[in-house]
Amino acid sequence: MGVANVKALEKGQDQLSYLHRLLDDIKALEMMLEKDLIEKVPIRIGAEQEFCLVSDHWEPSDKALEVLKTVDDHHFTSELALFNLEINLDPLELKGNCFSKMAEQLQTLLAKANKAASEHGDRVLLTGILPTLSRKHMDLRYMTPIDRYLLLNKKVQEVRKDAIELHIKGVDELNLHHDSIMYEGCNTSFQAHLQINPDDFKNTYNWAQAIAGPVLAICTNSPILMGKELWEESRIALFTQSVDTRASTFLLNERESRVGFGNAWSTGTAADFYKDSIVRFRSLLNTLSDKNTSTSKVEEGEMPSLDALNLHNSTVYKWNRLCYGVADGKAHLRIENRYMPAGPSVDDEIANMMLWVGLMNGRPKHLEAIDEKMDFRDAKSNFFNAARYGMASQFYWEG
Fold first, then answer.
1. Nearest to 74 by CA among 91, 86, 61
2. Which end of the chain, N or C, is surrounded by fewer C-beta atoms within 10 Å?
3. In whole angstroms, how far apart are CA 120 and each of 54, 115, 116, 130, 365?
4. How many CB atoms lie within 10 A of CB 365?
5. pTM of the model
6. Which residues contact 132 (CB under 8 A, 6 or more apart)?
7. Domains of the chain, with CATH numbers?
8. pLDDT in tens, 94-121
């Protein structure tokens, strides 16, 4: 879930103060890694379910906040667009019938959402991109009126200094210019979380990158956008471009899109991974807290929330995103798989997640240190081939 309590990041002292808090958070994380304070067992899984709200005629709704109020459940939260909502599932230990329990909770919460939506003349739909979306639904009146979304939209526009451009070519071709990040709201996903051992971060994260193409290939369900048939999983191209802060006239101001697969294998610790992200991507928002407390909390034996780092991380959308969290007083690291689309059914989503978790935990011995045995360009090419062609993809694998 994105950080909700934010404010604008102003130039000057405000920016400097936020940078100090970012660096303090990084130092605190390094301290926790050195002192072995990051939880290693038990391993837990979790998930976020984004979904669409549609009318009886399958048109996008604009009643997300009304439905959210009616459903009145802490598992639910808003999304960028008023035709989307999100469910945050409870984390579960990776054992026994955990996936069945997750599916059961998800079905129960979706039924609750459907009941609440029906009171407003709407229904719930699971799909990566709603096929009935059109240009009129990209109007700012469909943006959820919450500071986080409004400020992010304003900041992306300020950084780009130009309209957002969308160019996607598949069976058909889509070329659009737009004045907001609303196209991000077209994407709905099933985001799977897997807790990882911090001692094996590099190998685990690189393995997640290596298997992303094959896993994505069997998940694709979003070929239609604005009435055009594009990629088998058009979300991958759409999300990349919809929040791109690189002005098309000067692509080198940030060499990598904020939504991306990455440009190289990971080479260090989890703290090094976050350092690289801070160097590569400018901060867009600020937290409401302005105190440097993370390192002092670690010294006092308390696990810090790393608010500044988590906020920065929430505006850098890696398809495999490293996440830090604290639960029951214990800190943990997890990989968030962001490339799997929502739907078309709960069974499909849970099956996709089970395959991913199984591959993550069943890494073959001969493919340890995958960064030494596979060219990163092949892993990245595999991922985008999967997005374009789905099950028809051909991959580079072990030569």
1. 86
2. C
3. 10, 9, 7, 19, 54
4. 5
5. 0.93
6. 54, 58, 59, 60
7. 6-392 (3.30.590.20)
8. 999 999 999 999 999 999 999 999 999 9
